[in-house]
Automatic annotation (TrEMBL):
UniProt xrefs under InterPro entries: EF-GSTs, Glutathione-S-Trfase_C_sf, Glutathione_S-Trfase_N, Thioredoxin-like_sf
Pfam hit, one: GST_N
Species the sequence originates in: Pisolithus microcarpus 441
Protein's name in the database: GST N-terminal domain-containing protein
Listed PANTHER family: ELONGATION FACTOR 1-GAMMA (PTHR43986)
SUPFAM superfamilies from the UniProt entry: GST C-terminal domain-like, Thioredoxin-like
Superkingdom assignment: Eukaryota
GO cellular component: cytoplasm; nucleus
Lineage: Eukaryota, Fungi, Dikarya, Basidiomycota, Agaricomycotina
Boundaries of every GST N-terminal domain copy: 3-84
Length: 207
């Protein structure tokens, strides 16, 4: 693999999983730096390079700096066009962007709200109506060969399997959705990046 730079991020963070997966599928390597949230990203050394103090934060070998997970993942995917992560035409590339946006904002965001509200109990004011609203928005499906959109969707579906869909829902209601997740995350090049799914037996309910 060809080293292209280094990145601050946490492997448990979905955006970090996406970026490292995009690199691996392109036969590229990114050095993942040790990181402690609230400490590393508030240090003068970090904020001098990344003033917004956000992670993941990427720096290429030639000093190009970038934050925001989708932007970093797209940049990494663009380095090896033949890998096909951004599609093979302008139209396919636009569709990849469409589904990346869909996975991030129509699936993962709602699943994360359920995770924080019903799972971790971290959201004041979270209630049964909000839970139902997020739950109704949360599950969709996608496609065939692996693109950057598939990786984003797989991270979103992983969160769904940790919140909204227990074993019964995964096996009986949305088998094709979770088959897509299994297909993407079983790829030998990125299997270690995704790690254990953390799927739950019973879906989280608000009580």
């Amino acid at each position: 693999m060809t080293l292209i730079g280094k990145m601050y991020g946490n492997i448990a963070q979905p955006q970090t999983k996406v970026i490292l997966s995009a690199a691996a599928l392109s036969n590229l390597k990114i050095e993942l730096l040790s990181f402690e949230y609230g400490v590393t990203n508030q240090s003068p050394e970090f904020t001098q390079k990344f003033p917004l103090a956000k992670v993941p934060a990427f720096e290429s070998l030639d000093g190009f700096k970038l934050t925001e997970g989708a932007a970093i993942a797209r940049y990494v995917s663009s380095l090896v066009p033949d890998a096909g992560l951004l599609g093979r035409s302008r139209e396919e590339s636009a569709l990849v962007d469409q589904w990346v946006h869909f996975a991030e904002f129509e699936i993962h965001m709602d699943a994360s709200m359920i995770y924080a509200g019903a799972g971790l109990k971290l959201l004041p004011g979270y209630n049964a109506d909000l839970h139902k609203w997020h739950e109704e928005r949360v599950v969709r499906s996608l496609s065939d060969s692996i693109t950057l959109a598939d990786i984003f969707l797989a991270t979103a579906i992983q969160r769904i399997g940790q919140t909204t869909c227990g074993a019964a829902e995964r096996e009986q209601v949305y088998p094709h959705v979770f088959a897509h997740h299994a297909k993407v995350t079983s790829d030998a090049r990125i299997k270690d990046v995704f790690g254990e799914s953390g799927f739950i037996e019973e879906r989280l309910v608000y009580n």
